[in-house]
Amino acid sequence: MADAEKDDENLAQEVDGLRRKLEDERCRLNDGNLSHNVDPIPTLNARVRRVLKGHQGKVLSLAWATDKRHIVSSSQEFVISMPTTWVMACAYSPSGNYVACGGLDNKCTVYPLTPEEDPVLKKKLVATHMSYLACCQFNISDHQLLTGSGDSTCVLWDIESAQIIQSFHGHSGDVLSISLSPSESGRVFVS
Questions:
Q1: Could you tell me which PANTHER family the record lists for this protein (predicted)?
Q2: Structural contact between residues 135 and 108, judged by C-beta atoms closer than 8 angstroms
Q3: Given this model, what pLDDT does residue 158 score?
Q4: Tens digit of each residue's pLDDT (9 = 90 or more) over 110-133
Q5: How many domains does the chain have?
Q6: 167 forms bridges with which residues in the sheet?
Q7: pLDDT, tens digit, for every residue of 1-17?
Q8: pTM recorded for the entire structure
Q9: Which CATH number belongs to the domain containing residue 168 in this structure?
Q10: What's the rounded Cα separation, in Å, for the pair 150 and 135?
């Protein structure tokens, strides 16, 4: 009986030692918490500026133009006659001369907004994914477009050639959102 109690005591000590080791390893690998180094975010005093009417269904995406006066939005209701299924993603180019959009058709198309060009005739298919297009954003110029998809990839595209510049893998699920860093280089994004 004494041997069994001694074995239980030794096992309990071993378990405690393993718990401490595990906790130490977790602390070593843990990402830092920077909240104590950052000033508190000021309270947002938002108010309704203007209600834009027109969509009857869900608005799935929207983007401001750089002129801060125009917005492009996408929805599931076919308000803009396009030969595609739901448009889930949209983006304005930095110049404001182009809009990119795509969705359940797995494609991203760029449309010119200049008055002398018919957008439907001058549209350019830029990107094709293996699954739906969830998000898109122009890089720092009108020449590159970053897309995210249900195929778990992000891809940087050359708009003129419609060729892949770089493909980013590593997600274990759908890429639902991307955001480019506002830096001048345009070389950093999160997804």
A1: GUANINE NUCLEOTIDE-BINDING PROTEIN BETA G PROTEIN BETA
A2: no
A3: 94
A4: 988 887 767 667 888 899 999 999
A5: 1
A6: 155
A7: 578 788 888 888 998 99
A8: 0.70
A9: 2.130.10.10
A10: 10
